[in-house]
Write a structure and sequence with these properties.
By secondary structure, the chain is of the alpha+beta class. About 30% of the residues lie in helices and about 35% in strands. It has six helices and seven strands. A seven-stranded mixed sheet has the order 1-2-3-4-5-7-6, with helices on both faces. A hairpin with a 5-residue loop joins strand 2 and strand 3. The longest helix is centred in the middle third of the chain and has 16 residues. The two termini are about 15 Å apart. About 25% of the residues are buried.
Length: about 180
């Protein structure tokens, strides 16, 4: 899956080490929803990508077309083929790679994979209520706000809401 700025690929030698180093960026970790109480080791990153036979979780690295360098990762998790749905996740750990359109193009590529290749009907995602840049991007891409999980994420001494978004196949096709 290739765009003009980025393409989606497998985990390559050295990627897990970069991701392990990048995880120390505070802005990146603030956007992670999972209970991360300890740093990920290289083996943790490798394990995330290793099950190529999974029909429930699809993980890709995001790489620059210009020089093949690693930008981040994107995933489609908890794919349910009976219900034809999955949950989108994305991470662009290095600050110098944020706000350059890499995430937008990677999401568009992943949505094409989800709807055209996997035949999904709906892609969901969850975002923290204070992640204004991500919210603007998701809405620009056509995601529809479906609900709020109130005070479900604890960060820096306070509880934040998480906003649930969804995008249907027909909505994505109408916005392409």
């Amino acid at each position: 899956m290739r765009g003009t700025k980025v393409y989606l690929a497998e985990l390559r030698s050295g990627d897990a080490e970069l991701l392990t180093d990048w995880q120390w960026d505070e802005a990146f970790m603030a956007g992670i929803s999972y209970d991360v109480f300890h740093p990920f080791q290289m083996e943790d990153w490798e394990k995330m990508f290793e099950n190529a036979d999974s029909n429930e979780d699809f993980h890709f690295t995001i790489r620059k077309v210009s020089d093949d360098s690693l930008v981040g990762f994107i995933s489609l998790n908890d794919v349910l083929f009976k219900n034809r749905s999955g949950e989108l996740g994305i991470g662009i750990p290095a600050p110098e790679n944020r706000g350059r359109g890499f995430g937008q193009e990677a999401i568009q590529l992943m949505l094409g994979y989800a709807f055209d290749h996997l035949g999904l009907h709906k892609v969901n995602l969850v975002v923290h209520s204070d992640n204004n840049g991500a919210i603007r991007l998701y809405e620009k891409l056509g995601f529809v706000k479906e609900g709020i999980n109130r005070e479900s994420f604890f960060d820096k001494g306070k509880f934040l809401d998480q906003i649930c978004y969804g995008l249907l196949d027909r909505e994505w096709r109408a916005n392409k």
